[in-house]
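testing teh design pipeline on a random one, pls ignore if ur not involved
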């Protein structure tokens, strides 16, 4: 009988905070920008420069801590983590080791086996390092300090996860909470949310956990799931072959779907942490905590409860819409204008999700105004445009945020409601297609579909399909 193994997983999640300026200086945190243009003496580590803490960083860290049920260290400090690396200009990183701002929290996730709490060991504030760009053409490495000093929180979980599914559920829950708070956009592809995976395996029933490895360079949920499965298999193969799993940091290569060693004996590194002498301790009063709590927005669970009472939409729709704060905001704003929640929901659940998938976009990337969606709902409802034209107009709203009224007018897309003109077109189609007429009269009722199609083509899609059907039937049944 083959041995059974259990996987134990803990995560270190780095989240770039949505402040306009860096953690210890006034430089911009905007993504992009020409290399080394968002820099100053503080974030490039010039001698004699002094850091000044950005208050908004503390408030975002507090907000995330409170929303993830953490305890707050009301007296917390910054420490220097000393190490040399080319993208780390001071030769140390300012972080929090001894007294992190938040500790002992947890979030609830849904798993195949039911609800489960994933513990959060701590959340600490720190500065990001710069970025090395490897130029293979010139065979050199260049450094960009734009990211140096961008504020981060690091959320360190307990080793409570047992599968890739649980890890993804936990990350999605964290991302949702943080996006709802407005603390970060959590875009994995831009690096504003990054996860390092600590993983070990052991035989089921063993008293001790196995030796863990840490995997870095994971910038999508797909890569994280693949890396977990790959590392689990690699460790089991080593154990079955009687070899040892070495404690090390590994780098995941998503193209090759495999990992390779970066460095070993992570715990043996001595970072010589000591309290940062340039930064005073942060004292967080009860009043400050109460103030941050009072400002907390409605989170997803509360929003779902309200949707059930306030809007007549199915539970499934509410679950999908509230999964993204941006989509929930769009839904609520459009509904407030047109007062038709079910119809707004139908556009979001149908065409919006289809176009997001086709364009490989996230709901957070939606850029059209709720006013334009609300206008389209009203225009379609009033019969100003038929459903197929409405879908074409919506594509333009989705792509370019066009005003649907102006677009319909400009392109002559209004439904033709002139019954005389419609009847004349249908009579012509009937006279030109004797075979379809004969098929219809011979009992092939589906033949009417061809005649409807020909009529819509002749009307350039601007007729109301229900009216076309009605008039066609009247004409065919008379003959």
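output:
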């Amino acid at each position: 009988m083959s041995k059974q193994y259990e996987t134990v997983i803990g995560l270190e999640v780095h989240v770039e905070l949505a402040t306009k300026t860096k953690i210890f200086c006034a430089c911009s945190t905007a993504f992009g920008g020409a290399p080394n243009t968002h820099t100053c003496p503080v974030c490039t580590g010039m001698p004699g420069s002094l850091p000044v803490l950005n208050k908004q960083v503390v408030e975002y860290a507090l907000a995330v801590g409170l929303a993830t049920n953490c305890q707050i260290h009301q007296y917390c400090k910054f420490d220097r983590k000393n190490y040399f690396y080319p993208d780390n200009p001071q030769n140390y990183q300012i972080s929090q080791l001894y007294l992190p701002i938040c500790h002992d929290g947890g979030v609830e996730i849904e798993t195949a086996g039911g609800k489960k709490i994933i513990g959060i060991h701590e959340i600490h504030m720190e500065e990001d390092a710069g970025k090395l760009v490897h130029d293979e053409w010139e065979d050199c490495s260049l450094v960009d300090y734009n990211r140096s000093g961008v504020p981060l929180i690091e959320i360190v979980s307990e080793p409570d996860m047992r599968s890739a599914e649980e890890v993804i559920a936990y990350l999605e829950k964290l991302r949702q909470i943080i996006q709802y708070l407005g603390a970060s956009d959590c875009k994995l592809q831009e690096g504003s949310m990054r996860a390092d995976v600590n993983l070990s395996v052991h035989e089921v029933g063993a008293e001790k956990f196995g030796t863990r490895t840490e995997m870095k360079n994971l910038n999508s949920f797909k890569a994280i799931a693949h890396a977990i499965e790959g590392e689990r298999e690699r460790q089991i193969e080593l154990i079955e072959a009687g070899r040892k799993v070495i404690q090390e940091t590994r780098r995941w290569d998503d193209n090759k779907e495999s990992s390779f060693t970066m460095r070993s004996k992570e715990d043996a590194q001595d970072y010589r942490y000591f309290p940062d002498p340039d930064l005073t301790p942060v004292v967080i009063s009860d009043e400050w905590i109460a103030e941050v709590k009072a400002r907390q927005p409605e989170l997803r669970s509360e929003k779902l409860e309200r949707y059930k009472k306030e809007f007549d939409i199915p539970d499934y729709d509410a679950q999908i819409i509230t999964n993204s704060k941006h989509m929930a905001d769009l839904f609520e704003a459009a509904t407030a204008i047109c007062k038709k929640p079910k119809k707004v929901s139908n556009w979001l659940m149908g065409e919006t999700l289809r176009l997001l998938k086709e364009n490989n976009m996230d709901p957070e990337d939606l850029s059209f105004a709720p006013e334009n969606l609300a206008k389209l709902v009203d225009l379609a409802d009033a019969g100003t445009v038929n459903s197929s034209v409405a879908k074409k107009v919506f594509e333009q709203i989705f792509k370019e945020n066009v005003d649907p009224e102006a677009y319909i007018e400009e392109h002559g897309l209004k439904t033709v409601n002139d019954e005389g003109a419609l009847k004349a077109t249908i009579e012509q189609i009937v006279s030109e297609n004797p075979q379809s007429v004969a098929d219809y009269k011979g009992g092939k009722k589906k033949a009417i579909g061809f005649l409807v199609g020909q009529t819509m083509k002749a009307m350039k899609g601007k007729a109301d399909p229900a009216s076309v059907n009605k008039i066609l039937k009247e004409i065919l049944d008379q003959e």
